[in-house]
Amino acid sequence: MATKIAERDRCVTGVEGLDTILYGGIPRSNTVLLTGSCGTGKTSLALEFLMHGAVKGENSLFVSVTENSEKLLQNIIPYKFFDKSLIKSGRLVFVDMPVMYERLGLTKAELSMEEIELLVNSLASLAKELQAKRLVMDSITSVCYKLKTSEKIRDFILKLSKALSDLGCTSILVGEVTADSTSYSTFGVEEAIADGIILMANMERRGDLLRTLQVIKMRGTMHSRAKYVLDLTPVGVLLVPLLKGGSTG
Ligand SMILES: Nc1ncnc2c1ncn2[C@@H]1O[C@H](COP(=O)(O)OP(=O)(O)OP(=O)(O)O)[C@@H](O)[C@H]1O
Ligand SMILES: [Mg+2]
Q1: Per-residue pLDDT of the chain in tens (249 residues, 90 and over written 9)
Q2: Residue 151's CATH number
Q3: Residue nearest atom 9 of ligand 1, based on CA coordinates
Q4: Spacing, Cα 3 to ligand 2 middle (Å)
Q5: Is residue 62 in some structural domain?
Q6: d(CA 248, CA 245)
Q7: From the CB of 139, is ligand 1 less than 6 Å away?
Q8: Which domain holds residue 110?
Q9: Given phi > 0 = left and psi -120 to 50 = alpha, else beta, which region is 108?
Q10: Is 4 within the bounds of a domain?
Q11: How far apart are CA 156 and CA 158, in angstroms?
Q12: Predicted TM-score (pTM) of this structure
């Protein structure tokens, strides 16, 4: 009799359609690169992932690097899934990375190896203190610009994902690429280290600009590799297979 491979515990994203694509959700403690060009819905999907976690009682942490979190909040208030009480109760916490840099004295344009260690330790301590089970960093690309070399980027992502994984925290690192990029990440390092890659893109079809989503890799689970059309609706992200969603093939 064939022995069954032990099933990894899942972090159910709560995003309509995505859990089906992933055969139940992201394997818990994975670090996933959610990458795509501008306006493809990365931040919306990542916020919904955290919001669902918080609703289910999993403490969730949003590390905002690119946008001020106050401004970011204004953008998600209209969504039906937004629940202000989760912020009040501390289930959903927003942290601004520039504030963290300032507090840690990491003000130079390029961080040293020691400073990277300090940053990783501070982020891990924060996640531990909050008992975070979900974390989003939006965007990792902005952090990479402060690290500059492939070696430092590799060091930062490896150490951070190991620390978060040890805490049982499932993480989404948002990556920004240009629309014509042939790579899944700006520095080429992020995609190789991540346990999973979810690619978001814009696709022109019959004069309409569709948003698409495709799971490229996800360690620890089978998954669909098909392209899905992503709809940003007032109730949140909705995913439908491209052929159906894109109407008449
Ligand atoms: N409540 C909403 N309902 C429907 N669409 C929305 C809503 N809020 C924002 N959008 C759309 O989502 C788009 C941006 O989504 P989002 O910010 O998640 O993308 P992104 O990939 O993170 O973008 P960026 O590259 O700027 O970081 C906007 O262009 C807007 O049209
Ligand atoms: Mg964004």
Answers
A1: 444 556 789 999 999 899 999 999 999 999 999 999 999 999 999 999 999 999 999 999 999 999 999 999 888 888 888 888 999 999 999 999 999 999 999 999 999 999 999 999 999 999 999 999 999 999 999 999 999 999 999 999 999 999 999 999 999 999 999 999 989 999 999 999 999 999 999 999 889 999 999 999 999 999 999 999 999 998 899 999 987 544 444
A2: 3.40.50.300
A3: 75
A4: 43
A5: yes
A6: 9
A7: no
A8: 10-245
A9: beta
A10: no
A11: 6
A12: 0.94
